[in-house]
Amino acid sequence: MIRRAIAAAALLLVWVASAQAQSQVREFEHAPSPALGHDPVYSLYLPPGYATGDQRYPTLYLLHGKDGNHLEWLHDGHLQATLDGLIAAGTVAPMIVVMPDGGGDSWYVDSKAMGGDGDYETAIAVDLVAWVDHTYRTRPERHFRAIGGLSMGGFGALRLAFVAPFRYQAAASFSGAL
After folding, report:
1. Whole-angstrom distance between the N-terminal and C-terminal Cα of the chain?
2. CB–CB of 125/145 below 8 Å?
């Protein structure tokens, strides 16, 4: 009887600990964007413990490639499982990751005035960053914000970082279309 009670208590503790330490993914969040004139969609990764704590976190923005979307890093890149493992191993610090939709082939530039897809540079670098810093428990200083991207997103990440070096501490381009 005592063994069963101990086993049940142990299982309960494991369940409670895992419930508190789970990361969270939101695939269809929207942020207001005056630059685009509508609320573009983004995906969001919140680290283990976010839901139950009050800690503030660094933020990483990940941009998708041409003809991709805001789900690319989550589904094709297995971001949640990968980041959960790295955080659990202590390899990286817990962080918030924001994956905006870049309009398929916007190249993350402001192009509305030229008949292009819209002002995605401003929408992401200004509107989305401000929204995320206001809505989530980020560390809003540039020292706690980074940007990266794949292919077209690699181009966009470097471009956004070079255009506004005061906004990001670090930038990465993965197979960037440069």
Report:
1. 67
2. no
Contacts of residue 27, defined as CB under 8 A and 6 or more positions apart, other chains included, come to: 43, 70, 71, 74
How far is it, in rounded angstroms, from Cα 23 to Cα 96? 10
State the Cα–Cα distance between residues 128 and 122, nearest whole angstrom: 8
| Dist. CA 143–CA 168, nearest whole Å | 7
User: Of 70, 69, 75, 83, which is closest to residue 44 (Cα–Cα)?
Assistant: 70
Residues 35, 32: Cα–Cα separation, whole Å: 9
Instruction: Write out pLDDT tens, residues 79-133.
Output: 999 999 999 999 999 999 999 999 878 999 999 888 778 899 999 999 999 999 9
Does the pTM exceed 0.85? yes
